[in-house]
Amino acid sequence: MNHLLTLFLHSTHRVGRRGFATGAAILLSALWGTEQLAAWGWSLWATVPLKLLIAYCGLCVLSLRLHDRGRSGWWGWLILLGFGFFWPLAMGTVTPLGIIGAMVTAGWLIDLALMPGQKAFNRYGPPPSSPKPSA
Q1: Residue 11 lies inside a defined structural domain of this protein
Q2: Is residue 23 part of a domain?
Q3: Is 73 helix (H, G, I), strand (E, B) or coil?
Q4: In whole angstroms, how far apart are CA 110 and each of 47, 91, 105, 118?
Q5: Phi, psi for residue 73 in degrees, rounded to 5
């Protein structure tokens, strides 16, 4: 449980591909769930706080993975913006911005989900697979 809290609420260390994939799957499921609440008659304003929480957690997960790749976590905003344009396309609404968002999301997904992180210590900390020092 502590690992999930760290994954979704902190952005100051690193996470590997497996942790990123787990976090992304949980957040995408939660986002899909908010869409289902809207389909079941919940008002838009009732789902906005949930979507904002999901966006914050998404920024944290993106930041951790970007750190593992040696990049600033601030790039997460651009990725989340591209995903925001892509999401309506994924739900069936085709727009030019949705297509651009899909391309941005696909490019970053290939980079973050498939490419390995830096093997050595970087400015964001040790690799996620390294043993933790005992306290």
Answers
A1: no
A2: yes
A3: coil
A4: 30, 21, 9, 16
A5: -70, -15
User: What type of residue is 38?
Assistant: A
How crowded is the C-beta side of 12, counted as CA atoms within 13 Å? Answer: 1
Is position 120 within any domain?
no
Indicate the average pLDDT of the chain. 87
**How much is the average pLDDT of 86-109?**
84
Compute the radius of gyration of the chain from its Cα atoms. 16
User: Domain range spanning residue 102?
Assistant: 17-114
Q: With the CA atoms of 8, 9, 10 and 15 taken in that order, what torsion angle do they form, in degrees rounded to the nearest 10?
A: -10
What are the structure tokens assigned to 126, written together? 């040790």
**pLDDT score, position 53:** 94
Q: Does residue 78 fall inside a structural domain?
A: yes
Amino acid at 5: L
**What's the structural domain count of the chain?**
1
Mean pLDDT along residues 80-99: 83
User: What is the tens place of the pLDDT at every residue in 4-56?
Assistant: 788 899 888 899 999 999 999 999 999 999 888 877 887 878 888 999 999 99
Structure confidence at residue 134 (pLDDT) = 52
